[in-house]
Amino acid sequence: MKLFAAIDLLGGKVVRLRQGQRDSAILYSDDPVATAIRWEEEGADGLHVVDLEGAFSGASSSLPWVEAIAKRVRIPLQLGGGLRTEEAVEEAIERGASRVILGTRAWDEPEFLPKLAARMGSERIVVALDARDGEVRIAGWAQGTGKKVIDAARYAQANGAGFLLYTDVSVDGMLSGPDLERTRELVETVPLPIFASGGIGKPEDLRALERIPQLYGAVLGRAIYEKTVSLREWRAQVGEEKS
């Protein structure tokens, strides 16, 4: 299972939100590049960068940071937040993103996802399944879509997604544990690489996710910033168990 470190950007600073609420932002760093280097050094397999300003406003504003980070790390970087045009996606890739994360536009405009997949390739596209009570949310998690997670996942697969990112909005940033049941259901139902996100707060949560066969990866946010999970210690422990 791959571990991606989350870097949520707001006004050029690294923050974390609770349950996606903007007024709950906790500041962790004013240097996104140094943060990215730190997570690479501690053993992250990749970086999960979210432009929160873009998620709320619909216009990406963190591409200069993406470019700066991509120039300093070797691990892949996937970017989400405000990528609602083909041009924005193309620029994100040009600036150094290995993959882009699509949410709002993928559900607002049915033609967008398959058209983008044909142009950029499915391997570049992660479709976000941000859900509360099993319903996919968009526009910075503020609006419901009426789509259930499993149905949305099947749609994304059929229309060109290369990866899926499942986040239980109700536990995101709360360190209270991930939604294991729905994550397992997704992995067993949809044959795409799936990232689990939201609620991971302790090593036992990672253990539980690892027990889901074929789960591709997990995104770690507040847990690594508040040191309830150590990437370095986790890597060392897993290495010892395999040796």
Keywords:
eight-stranded parallel barrel, 243 residues, single chain, TIM Barrel, alpha/beta, 29% strand, 38% helix
Please name the CATH topology. Answer: TIM Barrel
Assembly of the depicted chains: single chain
Number of strand segments = 12
Mean pLDDT: 91
Distance between the termini: 17 Å
The number of helical segments is 11
What is the overall silhouette? globular
In CATH, the architecture is Alpha-Beta Barrel
Estimate nothing, just give the exact number of structural domains: 1
Structural overview:
With about 240 residues, this protein is an alpha/beta fold. It has a single domain, classed as Aldolase class I (TIM Barrel). Strands 1-4-5-6-7-10-11-12 form an 8-stranded parallel beta barrel, surrounded by 5 helices. A hairpin with a 2-residue loop joins strand 7 and strand 8. Helix 7 packs parallel to helix 8. The model has no long low-confidence stretch (mean pLDDT about 90).
Give the SSE layout.
Elements (H helix, E strand, L loop, with lengths): L1 E9 L2 E6 L2 E9 L2 H11 L3 E6 H6 L5 H8 L6 E4 L5 H9 L4 E4 L1 H5 L3 H9 L4 E8 L2 E4 L4 E6 H10 L4 E6 L11 H10 L4 E4 L5 H8 L6 E4 L1 H4 L5 H12 L1
Parallel strand pairs: 1-4, 1-12, 4-5, 5-6, 6-7, 7-10, 10-11, 11-12
Antiparallel strand pairs: 1-2, 2-3, 7-8, 8-9
Give a short summary of the structure.
This protein has 243 residues and is of the alpha/beta class. It has helices at residues 32-42, 52-57, 63-70, 86-94, 104-108, 112-120, 149-158, 180-189, 203-210, 222-225, 231-242, and strands at residues 2-10, 13-18, 21-29, 46-51, 77-80, 99-102, 125-132, 135-138, 143-148, 163-168, 194-197, 217-220. 38% of the residues lie in helices and 29% in strands.
